[in-house]
Amino acid sequence: MTRRVVITGIGVRAPGGPGTKAFWNLLTEGRTATRTISFFDASPFRSQIAGEVDFDAEAEGFSLREIRRMDRATQFAVACTRDALADSGLETDALDPHRIGVSLGSAVASATSLEAEYLVLSDRGRDWTMDPGYLSPHMADYLSPGVMPAEVAWVAGAEGPVVMTSDGCTSGLDAVGYGVQLIREGTVDTVVAGAADTPISPIVVASFDAIKATTPRNDDPAHASRPFDGSRNGFVLAEGAAMFVLEEYEAARRRGAHVYAEIGGFATRCNAYHMTGLKTDGREMAEAVRVALDESRLDPTAVDYVNAHGSGTKQNDRHETAAIKRSLGAHAYDVPVSSIKSMIGHSLGAIGSIEIAASALAIEHNVVPPTANLHTPDPECDLDYVPLTARSRRVDAVLSVGSGFGGFQSAMVLHRPERAGR
Predict the structure, then answer these.
(1) Cα–Cα distance measured from residue 167 to residue 274, given in angstroms and rounded to the nearest whole number
(2) Which of 73, 128, 302, 392 is the most buried (most CB within 10 A)?
(3) Coil, helix or strand for 25?
(4) Rounded to an integer, what distance in angstroms lies between the CA atom of residue 40 and that of residue 119?
(5) CB within 8 A of 46, min separation 6: which ones?
(6) Computed over its alpha carbons, how large is the radius of gyration of the chain?
């Protein structure tokens, strides 16, 4: 019998306010948290806006030494882990540490600290020959993405598998999916899983500027992210993190844990087509959705809400619309679809986990978050994208999908445990 996996703890750091409650309030109120970049002078760049997180590491309980040692993304992951563990009520000290795992995702890992250290070593790029006397003692931590899940493992007391997944913008979905697999196969009973990314730095902004993937709508930051709207012209870069406590269902039930949702199915595919381009038919994403639904033993008509990737680029939104139609059939026109990137921007590898949090909370509260800034739908995007205002409705099952550079396409199905198709 396949072991079932549930979410019993959630921790979020996202634009708009600290913690999971602030995150959910922002989404359900349809507010946006995108603004002009304040971390550095962004005036030389084509896109000068982002979804920044108001994060005070000292107020979050980090010591000065921890702040120096950990990159900002690692701090996010650790803070969210602490919240998720507290939310779950799980006493990890009482568990076999070899039965606890960690699965973390990130697209650019410690890019913020690496860029900052490069500027010091090169005297802001003026020196080709660098003086190692200025090298940070923590440079090795910034160079190795594996340090991020290691820091989370120390917080969680995890001595089982500890892994890092980095495959672009699907990293957050894929890391949680791998955590689910570890529990299902019996390797562990508990996994701390999720993702973190803090890419708001000059080098990352410049990289997306170069390919014109981000929006140049700098005069109106709050309304710049416009998924599925006919006037959309690129995504808004953001930062954030979400971490979860995943548990084997029977163990969670025995200890009386609160269950947000069961993760019924997960699948990922690649289009093997282009590093940044997408085929118009959405076939690979549709295949990932089909497999995730089959694994959940749910019919497409059981999906009550689709949490879309919805980046706000021309090709992605059309590709995703085609994939939803291809995988859900006629039901695609009956199910609400929305993109929370319209409110908090696109935090690269972290966004998949943040969207899982939104999906679990939609089940918890029976509310579908809206797509903000959607006033004039693209005629080619003709589904129900829940424009502007959240919608109260029964939500028993959610499909969350992600798309990433490299051709990665991932899908996850979350549902109430009693809705399991068994």
Answers:
(1) 14
(2) 73
(3) helix
(4) 13
(5) 209, 212, 214, 216
(6) 20
* Catalytic annotation, pick one of 80, 309, 319, 415: 309
Superfamily of domain 5-110+145-419: Thiolase/Chalcone synthase (3.40.47.10)
Please state, in angstroms and rounded to a whole number, the distance separating the CA atoms of residues 252 and 114. 40
Is residue 422 very low, low, confident or very high in pLDDT (cuts 50, 70, 90)?
very low
pLDDT in tens, 28-56: 999 999 999 999 999 999 999 999 999 99
Structure tokens at 300: 């497409």
What predicted TM-score, i.e. pTM, was given to this entire model?
0.96
Query: For the chain, what percentages of helix, strand and coil (3-state, to nearest 5) are there?
Result: 40, 20, 40
Token pair 């129900």 is found at 384
With 90 as the cut, is the pLDDT of residue 143 above it? no
Q: Kindly state the tokens that stand for 32.
A: 């946006």
Q: Which residues contact 373 (CB under 8 A, 6 or more apart)?
A: 32, 223, 224, 225, 226, 227, 229, 342, 388
Supply 360's token pair.
């679990």
Report the run of H or E that residue 361 belongs to, with start and end.
Answer: helix 351-365
Look up residue 91 and give its amino acid.
Answer: E
Answer yes or no: 375 catalytic: no
Select which of 80, 319, 346, 381 is catalytic: 346
User: Is 223 a residue of the active site?
Assistant: no
3-state secondary structure 82-131: HHHHHHHCCCHHHCCHHHEEEEEECCCCCHHHHHHHHHHHCCCCCCCCCC
Instruction: Please give the average per-residue pLDDT across 175-184, as a whole number.
Output: 98
**Whether 346 is catalytic:** yes
Identify the CA nearest to 265 among candidates 395, 403, 410: 410
Where in the chain are the domains? Answer: 5-110+145-419
Beta carbons within 8 Å of 285's beta carbon, 6+ residues apart: 269, 319, 320, 323, 327, 401, 403, 409, 411
Closest CA to 88 of 70, 76, 100, 98: 100
Contacts of 169 (CB under 8 A, 6+ apart): 107, 309, 311, 346, 348, 349, 351, 352, 402, 403, 404, 405, 408
Flag whether pLDDT at 420 surpasses 70: no
Per residue in 105-129, pLDDT (tens digit) is: 999 999 899 888 888 888 888 888 8
Give residue 334's identity as a one-letter amino acid code: D
Give the model confidence (pLDDT) of 203-225 as tens digits: 999 999 999 999 999 999 999 99
80-102: b (≥16 Cβ within 10 Å) or e:
bbbbbbebbebebeebeeebbbb
